[in-house]
Write a structure and sequence with these properties.
This protein has 304 residues and is α+β, with helices and mostly antiparallel strands. It is built from eleven helices and four strands. Strands 2-3-1-4 form a four-stranded antiparallel β-sheet. The longest helix is centred in the middle third of the chain and has 44 residues, at 164-207. The two termini are 24 Å apart. Belongs to the ABC-4 integral membrane protein family. FtsX subfamily.
Length: 304
């Protein structure tokens, strides 16, 4: 195969259909940016799960004088009930599951409440005795929270036992939904990109139908005829994929690390180095899809 001639044909095709090529680049760029964003979001969710699940605690809320639940009779948990919970937590039965725990009384709970909601009018109405006294428990294995829940659920003086992991699961469910939404949009955009690449190749082939006819008359193989058109599609998609890769890394560098990590530092964020796994995926995906679309389009055209 004469590579110089093939490359010359590719250059001519790109110049003749410049507007369509730019359209392919833009559609590929947008669709693969959605794909890259979805991948980054999944990486971030995994990072946050690892960070928060390791720190998730189980809380045992003691009764207050304002609670009339089944295990509370409208009176504050007694010192004896609190000591009973503490004794059980320190027992040999639960020791293998518990890494550490501490007790927060009314005054400590009120202090944390006022700090957390400083400037909120609700602070003016809250009183220490309205806030639950709480045992905060850190488990050696957070997945074994059911052991604590089963031990203390229904015990006199205990209002409720809460596993923070269940609250985190709701947050991660929302984040996963956002990730899947981005992937769905990306899928639609990729379909649009494939159709646009196919149309571009067919138009390019139609504009050079005389040259294709002459090539057939002189005995050029289908492979020789098809290669320039396939390369046109791959080059256009490759440019879009590179731009999408740069955009994805930029999102992590300037938005995640440059903004979120500075202004919302309560969790762990993925690094720019971690985001570098995304560009190879986007480039391979763009090249494969464009090559497939171009191959199908030119093969069908040459059969007509």
């Amino acid at each position: 195969m004469r590579y110089a001639l093939v490359l010359s044909e590719v250059g001519q095709g790109l110049r003749r259909n410049l507007s369509m090529v730019i359209s392919v680049i833009l559609v590929t760029f947008v669709s693969l940016t959605f794909v890259g964003t979805a991948i980054v979001l999944q990486l971030q969710i995994t990072q946050m799960k690892s960070f928060w699940y390791d720190r998730a605690q189980v809380s045992i809320y003691m009764c207050t004088g304002f609670d009339s639940s089944d295990t509370c009779d409208g009176t504050d948990a007694t010192p004896e009930q609190i000591d009973g919970i503490k004794t059980q937590l320190e027992s040999d039965t639960l020791a293998p599951f518990i890494d550490d725990f501490f007790f927060e009384d009314h005054d400590a709970a009120y202090k944390n409440f006022t700090e957390q909601f400083a400037g909120n009018p609700v602070v003016d109405f809250a009183k220490p005795e309205q806030l639950n006294q709480t045992f905060w428990i850190k488990l050696k294995d957070p997945s074994q929270a059911d052991v604590i829940k089963e031990t203390f659920a229904g015990v006199a003086g205990v209002q409720s036992v809460t596993d923070q992991r269940s609250l985190l699961d709701r947050i991660f469910t929302v984040l996963n939904a956002a990730s899947y939404t981005a992937l769905s949009i990306a899928g639609l955009m990729l379909i649009a990109a494939v159709l646009l690449i196919s149309t571009t190749i067919r138009l390019s082939a139609f504009s050079r139908r005389r040259e294709i006819g002459i090539m057939r008359l002189v005995g050029a193989s289908n492979r020789f005829i098809q290669t320039p058109f396939i390369l046109e599609g791959i080059i256009a998609a490759l440019v879009g994929a590179v731009l999408a890769s740069a955009a994805t890394v930029a999102i992590v560098k300037f938005f995640v690390q440059g903004f979120l990590a500075v202004n919302v530092p309560f969790t762990s964020y993925i690094t720019t180095a971690q985001s570098l796994v995304v560009p190879p995926i986007l480039i391979v995906l763009g090249v494969v899809l464009s090559g497939f679309a171009a191959k199908v389009a030119i093969t069908r055209y040459l059969r007509v």
